[in-house]
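Much of what follows relies on a compact textual record of a protein's fold. A complete example follows; check for yourself that the lines match position by position.
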Amino acid sequence: MNTEINSIETQSNWKKTFFIVWIGQAFSLLGSSLVSFALVWWMTKTTGSAVILTTATLVALIPEALLSPFAGAIVDRMNRKKVMVLADVGIALATLLLGILFWLNVVQVWHVFILLFIRSLGGIFHWPAMSASTSLMVPEKELARISGLNQTIRGALNIFGPPLGALCLEIMPLFGVLFIDIGTAALAVTALLFVTIPQPKMMKIAQSITPRQLVKDVGEGFKYLYKWSGLFALLVGASFINFFLIPTDSLMPLLVTEHFHGQAWHLSLLQALFGIGAVAGGLILTTWGGFKRRIWTSYMGVIGISAGTLVMALAPEPWFIIAVIGGAIVGISLPLANGPLSAIVQSKVAPEMQGRVFSTMSSMATFLMVPAMLIAGPIADSLGVRSCYFIGAAGCFLIVAILGLMPAVRNIEENHIATQEESAKLLEDAIV
């Protein structure tokens, strides 16, 4: 490919630049973890409604499902560092406003819904900008390990975030937790201000963003994925897997309170053991790197997620520890399922296309979560929360079996479309 890239991959100090950004983002994710736990627990204790919890998830999913491709197209035509800074600042300001409402004791559930929507909106810009920048900051041979490291830190946040969230709720009002998140966001923004993030040279050409060009860019991202038959089929399968599994995550607080009759520390323990598993899975991927054919590592991870979900569904009321073990199995399996896929895309897709490709992937993977949330709440209220876990495990096993039988998915790295001629044509269209 002849596209000139302003990359620091060949420089010896790539680790310094990357990890300054990475550490700042890790602190921001910690603040977000505290806020997520605090708000979910507040809604659980305030309403006790599966419909409210699933609606909260639905509100957060709408931007990702419907707007991600457009956000990715914008990311590909803007300075990615500025995108991340603006996203972090916007989320922090929205969190500040909600914190003031809690401080004044006038907050309503719909106020929380608005914050969740804004945080998700910021996320659909921030995530593709960070993911696309990673492939320019990190040497290709290190991408799988960095993906594993990212999964590890997310797992670590699941270990420390919920217990810290529960502790914070014991020693301070909820608005104090929100203000902590604002502080961690400030750390992330400060880290970004002191580094130079490489940009594709294409960005110097594509300075304007018109509605017509935006729609065209979105179409190019979808076309890129559609021509890559293995990845497209995998994403369709992933959307169905998420359809079955997303309710199990949203309804976990009700599983703790209704089935196990637990308290906040029970939920934090379940989430912490999930996090310990995720750290273990991420470290395994970081040190091992996965199978030579990365897709087999992802298959193994999805099977593990299915098995862990089934264990949680089968746990009887007196045996909460069994559910904790199931959560740990899911945690171990999650990095193995997601990490290799990110590495495949980062190594095969042209950097100038990665913003819209990652965003279109995200949109496809989450699109069916919206109807899942509409269905899951009434099912949980009428049949019991555990029914969603049984359905989730069975559906996930079925989809991974179907994907395993598809040659295009098994050979996903060999049938990618990123040949010089096709990529050059897509990039030529993109900068017109």
